[in-house]
Prior knowledge:
By secondary structure, the protein is of the alpha/beta class. It contains 13 helices and 11 strands.
Amino acid sequence: MTRVTGPWFLFGSAALLSACSTPDAAFERAARDTEPPPAFGVGSAPQNPSFPFEAPTATDNRWVFRGVPDSVVFEEAPGGGACTNPMDDACDGDYRAFIGLAWEHGHLTDESSLQDTIDGFLAMPARLDDSAGELPHAIADAWGVGFLFDALEQTPTRALRTYSGEAWGGRVDEYLLEDPWVGSFFARIHYADAVGPAPAVLAVHGHATEAADWPEAFDALSLVDAGVHVATIDNRMMYANAAQSSLNRELLLAGFTQQGLHAYEILLLHKVLRALPAIDPERVGYLGHSAGGNKGGLLIRAVDAFNSLVTDIDTEVRRADEGVPEYLEGFVPGLAPWQDLVNRYDTALVPVLKLDYGFPQGAGPYVDFFDETLQDPAT
């Protein structure tokens, strides 16, 4: 697949591509409101522009993840068994193993140096212009995942189907997705009753929530009723507690971030969706709640993969509020200078709909929005 390179990379992906020459080799682990909702802007940004959406003129240096990939292997594996629960503090093994697997792509530091780096980023003036197209690689660099993005289309992904049947009143497939870098995580696909490839929305939960909350708490199956497939993911270690804070601190000390690894997992699920015949690989939207919306605001800036974004939160990468563990997933100090620009949705390269936190307006606004933004260009 096409990707755009840039000057921000410190490490290449040759070692990864060599290790991943075959699927078996790749998976050998060394260590194991009643008011119309505001859209397309904040503050003085324009609201509710006409369709088709016209992206602002900017240098686009995003990674491109489009089309049908050839690196996904589908298998039947009833039962599963991996540790994937977002609220289980024991599901940190794959992330801690990642530090050892990817050490040559990171940069080890000590507590004092890390704090100096954090203080330096937080003191930087805001970056309010990205006409040179630096932001995608700034995001990947701050996340520590540029080498993963570089090789994502070639890295083998195993999609182990652990269940296929009826749930929540419709057809559902459940998968355990396996990756040689981040291990195993859970995903569920709710299928619409559609003829031919149909659009999909990838829904990402926040802290102390999980994939099952989308049909149960946020009425996301209204999208299924509207002919849109819905894919949900369980991001691990998301209980917003001291265990999560400790994990992200360890990752930061090694030059990585939990948010970056979660973003990579989201793109792995996106790759699996593009490999399914029922899904149109060119029409995938992103729906994010809380920390899931936080990641979405950054992902649409870093990669060309999603046609549109719905979020119920502005991106926040600085310290958490007082009384909350300080190193939660969303704390990415390297992105502090870019935060204000990321939240200027009128500068985004895809349409963005910002709703109230928790979607109190119900599913109607985002169903209508995705109906507009995921239309088949041929019709």
